Amino acid sequence: GAAMVARALWALLAALRAGWCLLPQSGYLHPDEFFQAPEVMAGDILNLQVYYPWEFLSSSPCRTVVFPLMTSGVSYWMIKSLQQLDICSSCINSYTLLVSPRLLFTIFSFLLDYSVYQLAPFWGADPWKALVLLAGSYVTLVFYTRTFTNTLEGLLFALLMVLVSSRKSSGSSAESTSSSLIGVITTAGFFNRPTFLAFALMPLLYWASLIVDSQKSIKTLINHILKFILCACFTASVFITADTFYFTSVSLDNLYSTNKSSLIDVIVQLHDKMVVTPFNFLSYNLNPHNLALHGTHPRVTHFTVNGVMLFGILHILAISAGFKMLKKYVHQLMLVRWCYHGLPGLLVQSEGSPTLLLFYFVPLAFLSLFSHQEPRFLIPLILPLVLFSASPNRAVKWKLLIVLFNLLGALLFGWLHQGGLIPCLFHLEKVIHSPASSSHPQHYTLLFAHTYMPPRSLLNVKKTDLHVEIIDMAGAGEETLCHTVEQRASNFTCSDCHIFIIIPGTVRATITKCEVSFKNETLIFPHLSMEDPPQIPVLSSGNWRSQLGLYILELNR
After folding, report:
1. Could you give the CA distance from residue 133 to residue 306 in angstroms, rounded to a whole number?
2. Where along the chain do its domains lie?
3. Which residues of 240-279 are buried (b: 16+ CB within 10 A; e: fewer)?
4. Of 45, 173, 182, 290, which has the most beta carbons under 10 Å away?
5. How, if at all, do strands 443-448 and 468-472 pair?
6. Would you say the pTM of this structure is higher than 0.85?
7. What are the transmembrane regions (predicted)?
């Protein structure tokens, strides 16, 4: 009976995941969910006006283009093809531009569920209890349905755990294949995000320990390692070639026409232009001054704040269990097994909860070495955490707290957080592409202040169209904001021009101090800005809706 209830609950939560993606979710988690894939691909494939982040500029290539092409690129190519074939006359709009890449990621997210179901028996966890914990987590509902590189990192980590765990339970026929796949996934994860090595370390050590423990022949061991290295090198060459062609705008035709020489000369020229994005990423992020530009945090932020923010009581229970097990096994693990039986014995013979905790805390410790620590960096850790938490007699008495925590997290990050910006862009897209605007060309200036960076692609404006101007003033002060608005108002002489100012309700009063007037205002609810949070006394008054809203103000001529 309990198993049937768990299955029904998982099915309901899985339907919620897919349905909420299509609704769509209005919460805006972080600019990277747009500017590390969809925004770039919308410019390249759909020829829309976009903002290219510095990581995708040819002068500083720090992100591989392979995964954006395989995800957002494929989604946009499909809706473009449907429109070109007249299957759908208006397939490209703000809704499809937002939802199509997210839907692909939502489908991919069920790889997590598959991984949990496969891994649970191996690690001594209840499969359906683990699946309910996974599907009910707001991290799965919100983060794993967004276009983050961290989401892909989590999926690759899950596949790696399946491969290294299944090796022991499966026969020898799958062993050679798993060595090759482990090499491919490890390298692909490294090119997606170099931090993947922190997540891959324990699975790879575990895999190596199983090989050493089960193989008597040194020849077989070398065979596994060679297959891993060869597949890793092949995968790396694919990524490097793709990135080199993308970032240097090299084509084979150009190379042959300019060189008019042998294939060897072409290869030499390609080598000179070679782009290895993970190395550029590491060289940038290992510089403390560069990290400081993105914000610095105490080294314990992941342990004390981000882990709790993402996983709640499950993170706290894991820490508590970790300290208990460390106290119990410290002498046995660190002295006896290390000195006399080696590291492989440590990993294999401490199978189960202690090893799962290592899969959770080792990446956490490595990521804590960097001063820039954001919660989304930890989302891949949900897999070992739910497997650990689904062990018998664990986390049962905390059911109500787990439900309330994830409900609050889903509402906060999936609906409230910067929740007015996406609906605002939907609204402005309709205004810009209205029949009146199409029949009589008009110019639009959109000024965003105190919001996250707006993804330009959602306005669905072609690069050739010059009638839309976007000004992103980020968190500009009152004086700078008023100066810009007043300057625009003084130059407002065009009868077919429209100036819209988009600003949260919490800083609405700032605009009233500027010497301008507005003819229209639209309030989009809800919108919570943590950078400009509403004051509690104001929320308790009748003005709470304004404080939790985003204003679209049209400047009066």
Report:
1. 19
2. 111-166+176-339+360-416, 420-555
3. bebbbbbbbebeeeebeeeeeeeeeebeebbeeeebbbbe
4. 182
5. parallel
6. yes
7. 152-170, 190-212, 224-247, 303-326, 346-371, 377-393, 400-417
